[in-house]
Amino acid sequence: MNDCWQTLLKQGFNEIGALLDFVGLHAADLPVSIEASQQFAFKVPMPFAQRMVKGDANDPLLRQVLPVKAELNAQPGFIDDPLGEKQANVLPGLLHKYHGRVLFMLTGHCAVNCRYCFRRSFDYGRNRVSRAQWQTVFDYVAADQTIEEVILSGGDPLLITDSQLDFMLTALEAIPHVKRLRIHSRLPIVLPQRMTTTLLNRLQLSRLLTVLVVHANHANEIDQTVERVLFDSSQAGPILLNQSVLLAGVNDSVKCLAELSKKLFACHVQPYYLHLLDPVAGTSHFEVDYDTAVGLVSDLRSSLSGYLVPRLCRELAGQDSKKIIA
Ligand SMILES: *Cc1c(COP(=O)(O)O)cnc(C)c1O
Ligand code: SF4
To answer: Tens digits of per-residue pLDDT, 29-52?
Structure first.
């Protein structure tokens, strides 16, 4: 199974033309930009591409990954570090912004490059942590009794191997005041084969309460393989949550958001956050304005059970938590 996900990852698309051929579209009919893909690389794993609707230039999955000319338009207010992550970067790879929890960026890589990514300009070079540097992070966590939760993030933390994760968990389990482990990963969605039995068994054995926060924006991202993997993951112990980003032309309708919540919940995943787009340079064409977003979530609330409605939130630099809007 291990070899299987790593092979699939290597076989992903890293050339725009190859993906367009695969989905039966022509570059000439789309606002494709090679220059945009030079600023932030193009990358799509095969299992995700297979869920795109063939011949549909407006496919919501394609829109999330296709580099387009609009990314090159500078927009006022859209900057490289809108979240003030530089100030919270206490050690290479470690962000300590909020009380009680730290966020550990294990790798700068992802299986998919989402064009709206809030960390598309993050300095991963400066934050590349070798296995030896992990120890400085463990020491930091061990020295601060207020840290009860460690969040593994990235890039995508599940791109590290099962044996590296085992090493990481063992080190965190040895720090008595650490109670919870949270994993923020898009891999269960875009490359579900990553959820190996070795990984699930290891999570199940941990003394830490484990929360797996996946990232899906549209119901079409969840096919039968994803459904099964999410269900199996939930059976292995972790609490499953989902975070989405509200994206123009992808999921900015009540129908889309309701379908997504219902489909997630059917696989034991609870909707958590619906993020307003972070104003990162190159992403302004995905913006849904504040009032429209509030209206959408209010309409969603009138059509769904309360627990199916994600919290609309926004992150502002320098605040002590993400801010819940609705
Ligand atoms: C989002 C985030 C968290 C987690 O916030 P929650 O509201 O607990 O989900 C923690 N640290 C950093 C740096 C974050 O950006
Ligand atoms: S998976 Fe997450 S971190 Fe990676 S490119 Fe997409 S949004 Fe960014």
So the answer is: 999 999 999 999 999 999 999 999
Q: Which of 103, 270, 273 gets mutated to test ligand 1 (max ligand atoms within 8 A of its CB)?
A: 103
**Taking the C-alpha atoms of 302, 230, 154 and 80 in order, what is their torsion angle to the nearest 10 degrees?**
-30
- The rounded distance, in Å, linking the Cα atoms of 147 and 179 is 9
- Centre of ligand 2 from the C-alpha of residue 109, in Å: 9
112 alpha carbon – ligand 2 mean position (Å):
7
| Closest ligand to Cα 108 | 2
* Span 58-72, pLDDT tens digits: 999 999 999 999 999
* pLDDT tens-digit readout, 145-157: 999 999 999 889 9
Mean pLDDT of the chain: 94
Pocket probe for ligand 2: among 48, 151, 186, the residue whose CB has the most ligand atoms within 8 Å is: 186
Atom of ligand 2 nearest to the CA of 186: 1
**Closest approach atom of ligand 1 to CA 273:** 9
- Ligand 1 atom having least distance to the Cα of 95: 13
pTM tops 0.85, yes or no: yes
Region 103-120 average pLDDT: 92
202-206: list long-range contacts, CB under 8 Å, 24+ apart. Answer: 202/162, 202/165, 202/166, 202/169, 203/169, 203/236, 203/237, 203/238, 204/236, 204/237, 206/169, 206/173, 206/181
On whether the CB atoms of residues 119 and 71 are closer than 8 A, the answer is no
H-assigned helices in the chain: 2-10, 16-23, 34-39, 46-49, 60-65, 85-88, 131-143, 162-173, 187-190, 197-205, 224-235, 254-266, 290-303
pLDDT in tens, 172-219: 999 999 999 999 999 999 999 999 999 999 999 999 999 999 999 999
Q: What is the pLDDT of residue 3?
A: 59
Q: Which ligand is nearest to the CA of 65?
A: 2
